[in-house]
Amino acid sequence: MAEAPLLDVEGLEAGYPGKPILFGVDFAVAKGEVVALLGANGSGKSTVLNTLSGFLKPAAGSIRLAGEELAGRKPHEIFRRGIVQVSQARDLFPDMTVEDNLRLGAAVRKAPGDLIAGIYRSFPRLAERKRQTVKLMSGGEQQMVAIGRALMSRPVLLLLDEPSGGLAPVFVNEIAQIMRSLKQQGVTMVIIEQNIKLALAAADRLLVLREGRIAERHDLTSGAVAEEAVVRSIYL
Q: Could you tell me if residue 190 is left (phi over 0), alpha (psi between -120 and 50 degrees) or otherwise beta?
């Protein structure tokens, strides 16, 4: 018997007052799997993540995590069940130190504080700057803090919204390495990424959204998918 998916999304519809965005979105994510949501601007990618996190209430459909229905639950309830999102805005506390920001992730879900040693091993740059205030850091370093804080909460499912967006090339490469490392560690992730090469390298499956619907599905475990073909499926 096949193992039940960790995340199971069926018939998801969501949007904003007078502006529906998602129309019957269906997908599942297995434990330890990395699924990338790709699509042009306005295709509904961030709306999917925000609905999974509870920041948007679905108009219809089901969101089950390990069999538990979460559709319509409040964000803090969903977070405590282990769905943790790193948004494009990162939502850090700029006047606090790196370490204080990291420890907040552990505090909310009551994760053990000794997790921070593992975070510093994964993010040696943060270990060097743990007493530095976040506002004095580069965008790439702040993204590392945001991902590290999310990992401090021991997520069951990690949602990453444009982790490489707006970063200098050197930091894009570092974020790519971090994502590959998380994949090797078995962290279950749903990611939105405009960098097609990064998405192809990190994901087990690609889902292409078009006008609020999943238009194409690509399984990367059964063979390579050409970058050009993915770009065509997104924009043409």
A: beta
